[in-house]
Design a protein that fits this description.
About 30% of the residues lie in helices and about 20% in strands. It is an alpha/beta fold and about 220 residues long. The strands form 3 sheets. The protein has a 6-stranded parallel beta sheet, sandwiched between helices. Strands 6-7 form a two-stranded antiparallel ribbon. It has a two-stranded antiparallel ribbon with strand order 8-9. Bound molecules: nicotinamide-adenine-dinucleotide.
Length: about 220
C-alpha cells in the first residue's frame, strides 16, 4: 500500500502520516508539502524518524507530482486553512491552493486510479443561517436545541442536509467547490472518493495561530 498525503507536514497530515506508519509499518507513506505554514518545517524530522518520505512540493504545480510514484490512496490534507484568508481582497493563494490545487490532486489520483480522501470543513455551512439557530445554555456549554428554524440540525449537531445557500467565507467556498468537483469525479470518472467535513481539530504539533488552531494557541498563551 502506497499513500500520498498532501499537506503532509501540516498538523493533520503529519499526524495521519505518522500514525499510519506506526500502525502499518509496511505501508509506504509520502508527505508532500510546500511548507507555507510556519512551523510545518518542524515536522519534517518527525516524519523522517517514523519512515515517512517527505517531498517538498506545491499542489498548485502539476509537475511537482512527478516526484511521487504511483500510489493507491491520496489524502488531500493541504490547504490555506484560515477562515479569514482572502477576506482582505487577495484570494489568489487560497483559490489556487484550495480549489485549483485540489483539482491537481484529483487528476493525479485519477491518473493512478487511486482512492481519494478529502479533508473538508464544517465551514461549508453558511454563516447567517448558523446565526439563526436556537441554543440552550447548559451548565458548562451552549448546546443546540431540537427545535430549529431549518432542516439538518438538532441537539445532535449539524448534518449534511443543512441548507447550503448563503455566504460561508472564501475558505469554506473553496472547500465546497472542491467537494462538488470531487462528486463529479466520483460519478463520471468512477474515482473512489471520501469527503470528510471536519471542524476545530486540535492536538499536539498544531502550530496554532489566531485564525487557525485557536485552541492550541489559547492553551500555549
Ligand atoms: N484543523 C482543523 O481544525 C480543521 C478543520 C476542518 C478542516 N481542516 C482541513 O484539514 C486539512 C489540514 O488542516 P491542518 O489543520 O492540518 O492545517 P495545517 O496548516 O497545519 O496543514 C496544511 C499544510 O498544507 C501545506 N500547504 C499549504 N499550501 C500548500 C500548497 N499549495 N501545496 C502544498 N502544501 C501546501 C502547509 O504548509 C501545511 O503544512 C486542511 O484541508 C484543512 O482545511 C482542518
Amino acid at each position: 500500500m502506497k499513500i500520498l498525503i498532501t499537506g503532509g507536514a501540516g498538523f493533520v497530515g503529519s499526524s495521519l502520516a505518522i500514525s499510519l506508519k506506526m500502525n502499518y509499518p509496511h505501508y509506504e507513506v509520502f508527505a508532500l508539502d510546500n511548507l507555507k505554514r510556519r512551523g510545518s518545517e518542524l515536522n519534517i524530522s518527525r516524519l523522517k524518524k517514523h519512515g515517512v518520505e517527505f517531498v517538498h512540493g506545491d499542489i498548485r504545480n502539476k509537475e511537482d507530482f512527478d516526484a511521487i510514484p504511483a500510489v493507491d490512496t491520496v489524502i488531500e490534507a493541504s490547504a490555506e486553512p484560515s477562515v479569514l484568508a482572502g477576506l482582505d481582497g487577495t484570494p489568489d493563494y487560497l483559490i489556487n491552493t484550495n480549489l485549483v490545487g485540489t483539482v491537481n490532486c484529483l487528476n493525479y489520483a485519477l491518473k493512478h486510479k487511486a482512492g481519494f480522501i478529502f479533508l473538508s470543513t464544517s465551514r461549508v455551512y453558511p454563516i447567517k443561517t448558523i446565526e439563526t439557530l436556537n441554543f440552550v445554555e447548559e451548565e458548562t456549554r451552549f448546546a443546540l436545541s431540537d427545535e430549529q428554524p431549518v432542516p439538518g440540525v438538532s441537539s445532535k449537531g449539524i448534518a449534511e442536509d443543512f441548507p447550503l445557500n448563503g455566504a460561508r467565507s472564501l475558505y469554506g467556498t473553496t472547500k465546497l467547490a472542491s467537494e462538488l468537483i470531487i462528486q463529479e469525479y466520483n460519478e463520471f470518472y468512477n474515482l473512489k472518493t471520501v469527503i470528510n467535513r471536519c471542524g476545530v481539530i486540535t492536538g499536539p504539533w498544531q502550530m496554532g495561530k489566531v485564525d487557525q488552531g485557536v485552541m492550541v494557541l489559547w492553551i500555549a498563551k
